[in-house]
Design goal:
Radius of gyration: 14 Å
Distance between the termini: 22 Å
Oligomer: single chain
Number of domains: 1
Protein name: Group 1 truncated hemoglobin
Largest sheet: none
Bound molecules: protoporphyrin IX containing FE
Keywords: Heme, Iron, Metal-binding, Oxygen transport, Transport
Organism: Tepidiforma bonchosmolovskayae
Structural class: mainly alpha
Pfam families: Bac_globin
Family: Belongs to the truncated hemoglobin family. Group I subfamily.
CATH superfamily: Globins
CATH class: Mainly Alpha
CATH topology: Globin-like
Number of strands: 0
Helix content: 55-70%
Strand content: under 5%
């Protein structure tokens, strides 16, 4: 897990600037719907329990952005091991996330901060 973004005194945490758990949940719902419709990558999720995945994503993003949630899933290397995920797959998934953030009109700054937290996970996820 990345270290949560440090928050300067007097500046709201990314978690709160995003709109807290309800907003993060809404973005994750839209993100997963985008992935499910994305023929470049949806086959990876054919046997995945989607409600559990969404729960993990909400907790992961909540924790990483300074919220009270606790991520209880596997580390990114273990969770994606053996899937032969390429950089193109990774970029497709990020595109689906950006689309979800745009659907909810998340401002550029918050969008970039969130992507900045997730981007470094690429090295543990892309294995092909
Ligand atoms: C920054 C990018 C990504 C993040 C933050 C992320 C996050 C997660 C999380 C939190 C889980 C749940 C772990 C668990 O069950 O313990 C998960 C599972 C999974 N991820 Fe990712 N992921 C990313 C990229 C990708 C990509 C690019 C693919 C494939 C295109 C992918 C495919 C999967 C699949 C198939 C599962 C479910 C595994 C299962 O059913 O047990 N992920 N991911």
């Amino acid at each position: 897990m990345p270290t949560p973004v440090p928050t300067a005194p007097g500046q709201a945490k990314l978690y709160d600037r995003l709109g807290g758990k309800p907003a993060i949940t809404a973005v994750v719902d839209a993100f997963v719907a985008n992935v499910a419709a994305d023929t470049r990558i949806n086959k990876f999720f054919a046997n995945t329990d989607i409600p559990t995945l969404k729960m993990h994503l909400v907790n992961q993003i909540g924790q990483a952005t300074g919220g009270p949630e606790k991520y209880t899933g596997r580390d990114m290397k273990t969770a994606h091991a053996g899937m032969m995920i390429t950089k193109a797959h990774f970029d497709a998934l990020v595109e689906d996330l950006v689309k979800a953030l745009d659907q909810f009109k998340v401002p550029e700054r918050e969008k970039n901060e969130l992507l900045g937290l997730l981007g470094p996970m690429e090295k543990d996820i892309v294995t092909a």
